[in-house]
UniProtKB/TrEMBL annotation:
Name of this protein: Orn/DAP/Arg decarboxylase 2 N-terminal domain-containing protein
Domain of life from the UniProt record: Eukaryota
Orn/DAP/Arg decarboxylase 2 N-terminal domain segment(s): 44-278
CDD domains associated with the record: PLPDE_III_ODC
Residues modified to N6-(pyridoxal phosphate)lysine: 68
Upper taxonomic lineage: Eukaryota, Metazoa, Chordata, Craniata, Vertebrata
Location of the active site: 357 (proton donor)
GO biological process: putrescine biosynthetic process from arginine, via ornithine
GO cellular component: cytoplasm
Amino acid sequence: MTTYIQESDFTMVEEGFVARDLMEEIINEFSQTDDRDAFFVADLGDVVKKHIRFLKALPRVKPFYAVKCNSSRGIVQILAEMGAGFDCASKAEIELVQGIGVNADHIIYANPCKQISQIKYAARNGVQMMTFDNEVELSKVSRNHPNAKMVLRVATDDSKSSGRLSVKFGAPLKACRRLLEMAKNLNVEVIGVSFHVGSGCRDPQAYAQSIADARLVFEMATEFGHSMTLLDIGGGFPGTEDAKIRFEEIADVINPALDRYFPQGVDIIAEPGRYYVASAFSLAVNIIAKKEVSSESTDSDDEEGCPNKSIMYYVNDGVYGSFNCIFFDHAHPKPILHKKPSPEQPLYKSSLWGPTCDGLDRIAEQLDLPELYVGDWLLFNNMGAYTVAASSTFNGFQQTRINYAMPRGAWAAVQLLQRGFQQPEEKETVCTPMTCGWEISDSLCFAPTFASTGII
Ligand SMILES: *Cc1c(COP(=O)(O)O)cnc(C)c1O
């Protein structure tokens, strides 16, 4: 496989590196100047670890990363390097991943409602796997993409997820029969079923239920003469350690459900977004302005007043930028102080505001913080999912720069993964203890199993 990553775009860091170290370095560099723009540090080693963890926890499932979650170049490239597939929802996302050399058969166009010109684009560029959940889509596809391999998206119970998707997408079970019949009549090939339990899913049973539902749809489709070979279990997996439920707990429900309802003969894919990127990104913002507000309780004022004052801080990224996750992803980002405060420092009720002129641009309030100053830094962890993806340049504030860090050991692991995927017969050699110090030998042993499914 080609090496897409140019080392110059990255800081290669030695083992033992934590994102915080690179952050510290950048902050140090900034301290020589007045230029203290907000910035991200993206730890690509974290993405590599997530991938290995995915292969271990869900050995039968091939991940197709959902590009919409974070389409930054470093993320897409590292995942391509490791042989992941991609869930694209638009022409531009297809262009992005094909632009770095990803094969069309590693792409699923997972948007059930597509513009005709974009369906044609997919057809011209060899992207065949596409989802649908309605009749109109089927007739559009039959006219514009005769070679499409359609995947029927079914609705789920997403009531226990933070980002509900089945309000917009997914055919109810009782509509599936009609859709499958219509596909047959239109000569449109249906190869599988997909679902999404909702983003930020807290109920692993939702996956089991949808896998069972998918089985029913497989049976129905087979009756209509469709040759069903693909199950797509979507996304919804947690991306941070503080999530209500661990990824492995979800996997412990998914695996037996797959073995019960799909014991063999199908390719199984997933479309994880948040899972891969949430914890990889840390954000540093700088305080650009500050305003003290005296307490409203003017009556009971004791003139010392200090504990009564509250402070508004204005920082150089906000809800029109990376913090759009507050509105679009129900996030509640909490700052970490760059300078450790001493315990004697009094705390003040504080609020954090973005740099734009909109009153809506508020990041957090009711924080208890020691007094901070213009030029101080605040850090935010777990800022990789649904942040950079939807950030705008509203009011002339530029998108926040991403600094990628690739730990040397993780890079070695990526190369081993590539060999593992490409040459399954080398199982024994690949599984010998690693020199890179990464505990990846177990998961690499999954590679041959994987390759034998023919997906890779
Ligand atoms: C958004 C989306 C995903 C990714 O969801 P996560 O919850 O971030 O894993 C996957 N598939 C589809 C179709 C989506 O719309």
